[in-house]
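[Q] Does anyone have a clean structure-token version of this?
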Amino acid sequence: MSAPVSTMKRADRAAVFLMLLGDEEAAQLLAKLGPVELEQLGTAMCALGEIDQTGIAESLADFVTEADREILPKQDRSAQVRSLLERSLGPTKAESMMQRIEPEQRPRSIEMARWLAPSILIKLVEGEHPQVIAALLLMLEPEPAAQVLSELPATVQSSVVARIAKIGPISSQVVEMIDALLTQRIGQSFGASALKLGGPREAANLINLAAGTVSQTVLPAIAEDDAELAAEIKDQMFTFEMLFELDPQGMGRLLRDVDNEALVDALKGLEEEQRGLFFAGMSSRAADGVKDEIELRGRLSMDEVRAAQRKIVEVARALKEQGEIVLGADDGEFV
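[A] Here you go.
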């Protein structure tokens, strides 16, 4: 039977509220009670019969009333949040999250480092102790951290990896020390001027690396708000250098649609090794003919070379959209 509202005691209402919580949350609250409180609450929970909606509403209202009388102190609020995050995320990720959410904190160089290219990070940690490098890598995303590791001297790589494997909790003092180091190194490398981050090229690189149909959804959405920006990103998505990744079969398919004059002008601005990637998609006879034309071609400005390369990129873009060649990331599915 439903417990009459008028007969519910404070312990009964507390018991109902507790039973409305999930098991884990209820267990955590019970763990904070003393023996006497536990006995009273446990007795009430065992004695409760069926609770109707009125009883549930009264129990919740009682909780709200008590909550209105309480004041959550601001003192050590950041410490409380940090403690909760450390229990759920671990000390390293918790520190990184606190750097993002903690109020009235100056921007940290560690947070800036998360946005820097691996080639720049390498310069910032050059000559540092492996323990410092290991701690920093743990605060980065896995992919850029792996790139930084691969660029370290071979004699340092093993020391860094060994320390990552057994580093344990990172104290706030170590984080502050790394932050100070990065601040100093960034100042030495770039001065007081702001770092230039982002831009159409960086956005295009992200889209090129993204799996699936990101470009088909992201670019049209951007174009609705800023058609010019979408065009700039699209231009950067297909660079001439990307053609160097084509296999001979793909290169051969591309060259069948490329104007010979544009090809000669485009290749004239390349090193011999890079030209060889294009020659690999031709027959020996065709390659020899193009080599001869390159030798006979007069001097060209870099603007003329780039214009020819852009023409080839446009052909490559069309072939990619038709599924004739593969450039950049794919969707990871093969048949």
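[Q] Thanks! Anything notable?
[A] Confidence is low (pLDDT under 50) at residues 1-6, 103-107, 329-335.
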